[in-house]
Amino acid sequence: MHTQVGIIGAGPAGLLLSHMLYQAGVESVVLERGNRDHVGTRLRAGGLEHGTVALLEAVGLGRRMREIGLIVQSTDFRFDGLGHRVDFMAATGHSFMIYPQYEIVADLLLAHAQAGRQVLFDTPVTRISGIDGPRPTIHYTANGAPAELTCDFIAGCDGYHGVCRQAIPAPVLKVYEENYPFGWLGILAAVAPPSLEVAYSCHERGFAMTSFRAPEISRMYLQCPADDRAENWSDDRVWNELRLRLDVPERPPVKEGRIMQKSVTAMKSFVIEPMQYGQLFMAGDAAHIVPPTGAKGLNAALADISVLAPAFAAFYKTGKRALLDRYSGTALKRTWQVQRFAADMCTLLHRFPDGNAFTWRVQRERLEYMTGTPTGIRTYAESFVGLPFDS
Ligand code: FAD
Ligand code: PHB
Questions:
Q1: Is the Cβ atom of 198 under 6 angstroms away from ligand 2?
Q2: Tell me: the pLDDT tens digits for 270-311?
Q3: Residue whose CA is closest, atom 1 of ligand 2?
Q4: Which residues line ligand 1 (CB under 6 A)?
Q5: How far apart are the C-alpha atoms of 65 and 61, rounded to whole Å?
Q6: Which residue minimizes the CA distance to atom 4 of ligand 1?
Q7: Rounded to the nearest whole angstrom, what is the distance from the C-alpha of residue 69 to the centroid of ligand 2?
Q8: Alpha carbon of 384 to those of 221, 231, 293, 337, 369: distances in Å?
Q9: How far is ligand 2, taken at its centre, from the CA of residue 210, in Å?
Q10: Which atom of ligand 1 is nearest to the CA of 125?
Q11: What is the C-alpha to C-alpha distance for residues 164 and 138, in angstroms, rounded to an integer?
Q12: pLDDT digits over 35-82, tens only?
């Protein structure tokens, strides 16, 4: 079997790439190790930058997003017992949209089905080879038997635990990584959020935040030890801790509801350089991870595709590799800006177990500056609603 672009991973990055290549008349095959249910129901991200919304609209995926996406215009920062509202819409003219990752994946799978295109589920890729020659090959397992797909190019959209990265020779690959000394307990609850905005609390008991996935579904997070387990958190303990960390005067209090899901996520910053080697192009979590504070992971993955898909399309239209050759440089420029913001938000809002009174005091001064001065507000607002998509 041969295709023009072999795409590994049916997460948001791989599916959007496949969709955009199809629209540009470029042939591709998506191989995904999980099954359709696994891919379609992963909870994960929820917030879209305005550039992501515009991108999804531009590629014909805007209809359901317009119907059920929820517009957010401000963030409420809670510290020192008070709420400090930052109106990022007023500061930038742009809003943020809550539209869950599983809805984007559903839209993409529907678009594939409507075009009569198949995603190869239950198809784990074991390795890739030949990426520095003209016929790179994807080695995978289908129905228990080994198989191969030759391609002109391979797109490594296989997430942080994928196999593609390993094919880049060690002397070429530079890895930047930071692991944070805490995690997040995330819950999904059948209750309306206290208000339709995102609230972050920097509290001495640890970070907490409220967000939502729908008008009657809250998504909330609590800082916890990095090696904590969801089983350690009874529902009572979760609600009690959320109230202690989030409730302040003049803001609607945390409301309890049935907890439908609980899980612990580790916090990590991670970038590889370069994001391409030979005929291999890496995108999304396979190439970079951010701590979730700031809601950038999904947006960053789709921003890569907004650069990569037109570069492939230009190659097949003109035979010229210029845009493909620039992919890594273009994508990394934006990636590092996203890393800066996510790491800033992470270090600003969490209680570091090894911090001291000085670092804790300065953290709150940084919050005062960010929420109480025009420069601080603008700096936060610009990065939160989204840096420009480049191509
Ligand atoms: P993924 O969604 O990871 O997709 C990669 C795909 O590749 C997967 O389907 C995987 O099964 C497949 N794959 C891997 N290896 C192979 C193989 N060998 N063969 C075949 N297929 C393979 N971001 C935010 O912006 N806000 C959030 O609140 C947020 N919360 C998160 C919570 C969790 C628990 C996690 C893990 C991530 C969260 N993120 C969040 C990040 C966001 O979900 C990711 O940035 C986004 O999913 C990246 O999309 P992707 O397509 O690059 O990778
Ligand atoms: C979310 O809705 O999951 C979310 C929102 C904002 C963040 C992080 C996560 O900063």
A1: yes
A2: 999 999 999 999 999 999 999 999 999 999 999 999 999 999
A3: 46
A4: 8-14, 31-34, 39, 44-46, 101, 124-125, 157-159, 161-163, 265, 284-285, 292, 295-298, 301
A5: 7
A6: 11
A7: 14
A8: 18, 32, 10, 11, 16
A9: 8
A10: 19
A11: 10
A12: 999 999 888 888 999 999 999 999 999 999 999 999 999 999 999 999
Q: Rounded distance, CA 139 to CA 214, Å?
A: 40
Show the tokens assigned to 75.
């963030």
Strand-strand pairing, 145-156 and 2-8 = parallel
Residue type, 119: V
Identify the residue whose tokens are 């998509």.
389
